[in-house]
Design brief:
mainly alpha; two-stranded antiparallel ribbon; 61 helices; 2 strands; 1% strand; globular; CAND1/CAND2; ubl conjugation pathway; TATA-binding protein interacting (TIP20) domain-containing protein
Length: 1255
Amino acid sequence: MTFNIETLEDNCRDVDPDLRYMALQDFQKNLNNPKIQVKGVLSIIPVLFKLLYDPAAEVQNQAIKAFAPLVRHIDDSQTVKVIQQLYTESESSKDISRFATSVPNLALRSLFQNSHARFGKQLSRVIMDNLLPQILQGNMTLSRIEILIDLLQSLGGVLVLEEICAVRNALLVCAFTETGIVSKRSIVAIGVLLGHIKSACSDQTRLQRQFYDGLFSETIALYENENCSRVAKRALFSIFLTVLNHISKLKMQIMSIATAEMIASVMIENLCLSTLNKEQVEDLDLDQMVSENVLRSDVLDSLALLIPCISYEGILEPFLPDIVRILEAFISYDPLAVQNQDDSDYDDDSEIDFSDDDEVEQDESDGADGLASKLRIRSLVAFGQLCYNKSLVLSSIFESNLASQVIEAIGDKSSDVSIEALNCVILLLHLVTDTNSPASDDSMQQFDLTTFHDLFVTKFVPRIEAILFDKLLVPENISNFSHIEALVEPLIQKMSRNLSNNFLTLLVDRLVAQGMSLKSHPELIGLYEVLLETYLLEQIPQAQILVKDLAESLEGLRAYSSSISKYLQVCKVFYHRKPLLDFQCQLANDLFFPAIIKSAISRQFSSDVRQQLLVNLSDLLIEIPISSDNRALAVQTFSETLNYEVTVGYTIDCLNDICERNPEVFDSLQLSNLIIEKLSTYLGSGDSSLYSSSLTLIQTIFQQTKYNGSVEVVQVLSQKILELLKNSADSLLIDKALCALTYVLELQNADQLYTEGILKVVTRFTSLEAEDIKLNTIEKLAAKLSQHNTLGGARLFQMAMSILDLSKFISATFISTIVLECNLFAETELIEAKLSASLDGSTILTEDMIFCIHFLGCMSSHNKVTRFSYEDFFSILENNATESICMASARALGLSIFSEFNIRLPLLLQKYEYLCSINDSKKSLLLISVKQILKQDSVAIEDSSLRLIWDTIVKALSNSNCEMNHNDVAGIKLAGEILGVVAELDIQEDYQKKLLQCFDSEAVKSGNIFIVYAMVVVTKVLLSDSKTTFDEKVIEQVMSNLSKPNLDLKLAIVSTIFTGVYNKSKTIAGIANEMILPPIFDELSAKEEFKKVIPMGPYKYVVDEGLEVRKLSYELINAMIGLSDSSTKDLLFEIDKVKILEMMLAKGLNDSENDIINLAVGNLIEIIQSNPVYLTQISNLHDFIQSLMKILSRNLRAKATTQEAESHGDTLRAIIKLSKVVNKALVSDSALTSEWTNYYNDLKTRHQLLFHATT
């Protein structure tokens, strides 16, 4: 669809201003409409320039807005011409002064502000080369500065360091030589310019430091050239504020000591400390004082920003004496204090006026106190900045009068000063009590933290209490309690043992006397929590009143729904206070319980609120003895919430928690029967999300209570569990179901049909790997079945032998348990004889031989075998060539070790080391034996044995001299998994340190991949535990090996980082951009060394063996993007999405494999949808469009397979979806270009069906 440009031109020239206005409005709508093809817009450009001078202001305004969308539909050369013409007309406007801006100026600025996506690097460079010299030539005007600001914001990324320095110097001259708005806007421009320093310096700290040194030197030189006039002083400190604010946000040591000394010297000079308090009050000129203090305020603001810029060890210390002297002078600065005292009879015991009255604020803003209170606030802000450097400043603070002054300031007559002082005192509290922050040995030579703490307690805590009760917690100030409470809470938390004996009494009396409650002052909830956490209930005066207030607030829960979590958290603290008091139990039963029950079943509350209420109810039931009536009410409540979809999951979890921690609640058979019946229903439903939690609760009920339900209920439950076991493939779910079935057997003896059902279920599990099912669970089930059946041991044994798959280890484990429980040792002798005969030459099925070996291995772990020992199983392993028999022998070998563990384990490990040295293929079988040892009885294995296993395997791998190939991977992976289990079991040893030692060993340096691969596997095992801390140096070592040309190692490393992303998010977050992403980016392109040419008749096919590594790398990036976009914002997971976007465009979209393109497109879509601003980082939209068109133009080969056709279709749909996402972002940002619009319309035409089918 197109629009008629000629008609719009005619309307733009019409004499009717309304028609001109509407024509311009339609013009903009058409330009921003992605469905319209824009052609021939060049003809309207002269008309737009003419309309900038239209007599109708509304038409002028529309003409100004039209240039931004216009340049998105013309080529680069025409864009440069339009910009130059706008600038020329802006400069040549005769109807404006140098302190105003023209209409062409506004149009040019609008163009830069609203079309930033239009300017690629090449076009930006041309525009900058064209405009920048013109702007800097001659005197600066407001018009030029405004254009320069927008030019820097939109195109400043192309500036080089020399250009930035030139602009900097020109703006500094303007800031000092001009006045008023021109000077102020030039300083704003400096702030914009600073945003491009880092990129212009290529992130080199040295170059940045040189730039800032030059900036400050030039600034001070210009200031001195202006004879340090008052105007120059204001300009100087405005520049200081702008630049220091920028540097402080960098959080880098950018400023040199010499520059800091120069800045500090100018600050001290302009503070005029020597004349600060010399004049007599009656001689003071208030207007002059205000004039002087305005400048001092700027200086103190600059000081507050300078402190974080020099807050580095070895830099801050020389400045501390001067900083302390300045703060001491201003924190208590009040030159009119004597006059005010005479006028108002003010004394130390009078209250602070926290009034919000407009007249009072107006008086202060007019300088009624000579701006003294403003200076006190600024000095307190600077003090707060100083406090963030604990290890460097504690001595200076406490050796001076600063701490005392700050504490006195909380009683300041100005509410603003008092509030800022309260914040500073809170910082002081943390300084002297926080033992986690590091302290420098040099800065702490004279005092340690205990000294500061004791000094604070003896000298300052009593004074804080006095001011708190004499000046703050008084009727006149109670409306500002939120500010006061901010100090009271940490004071109690950190100084509870050091407060006076009557502190709590005075505090509670003040609260009660003022009639304060949670309904009138919701912020009290924080204080209640601190009191309940810090003191026993009997220690809190009038505790009943406070707790009753908390309980009554629950009745009006709807009013506090936004902070429901906080209220319920405090309730939980109340329940947990021990020892229990009578009034505590009474209030919990009479007030808390009914309020929570009523709300938990009320549908007027949201699902998440009701879920939180259920959790709180379970806490109450666990911690507080409840009445019989309330217990019945709880049963009724749980029966209702089990029926609601939004609460059933939380109800099951809460019931499980209650049953574990206070099983007396389940003494009522009614409750247990109700729950079992409900859970049986859930197990038979299609909602698999409830299976796991339901089975956990069933297991807990059987474990913690004397449940003895009806036969009908138990039968239904057992049938549901068996049905679930027949269909589930989830190993965790299977394990829980088997445990539940074990408990059910205690209540219901298994008849023949029931036994067959259990055995068939066990048979189903034998098709799974033995590692997927916990063997102790199988053994427990077999033991219970042996004890609770109607068949007898012999019959049960025969049924197991006939139904179970005897070639599987699980079957042997199950049958051996039956033999042990039923004392069927004659069967053991028969099986021994059968195996002996087979070894002597008798014919036996392989399946039967495997069973015999497995069975006797299990029995030997219980010392119930007479003919076979460790040596016999080892002999079978050495002499038999059948793989399955060797595997069985390896397991049996591991099990047989336990009879003489300390003798046989070293022998086994020595044999493994020997086989490794000769590269025997059966070396991995001995690792299976070791793994079986760790699985069988890991608790009984001593740490020394675990370390022997680690040392032996590491030594064997380190001594491997051959080159690792794909056939070695399974064995090395098994070795790594064993080492990982050892590291998990041996909690006394630092295995992360051992990992680092292995990565840095001579074997690794000499190119041994075996040990590297094994250590990567160990790292993955350790990363799987989300609870332990992890050393990021290990990740760094792992990633350093990604460049090694081994595909199996690459896959293992990327897979390991995948594990870390989800289980060690905080560790990964801190090193993602520096250590993880750069090497991963190197894996995104196909590598020639992994391409293999396969001749097939007359053709040659190229197979990319590195494809799997690339795919996994793209998937890892997707996981990292998804995690950084998740709700877990506390992780501070800041992924460099701009760099990822660049890699996806450069590598992903240009890959030859459809799978890679699809993954890259998925990542691009996720990045752009998370924040469309990232789209502006596409520096060359033309190249991006060309990449998309190249993919869309690919054709299937003539005899493409079905798989190839499906892959091609998936790629087309992915590109179409990406195009839709990009188009939506461009439309919302008004950044459409003619090239993109033409591409998008062509896409819709060429792929019409796919386009409309893709969402």
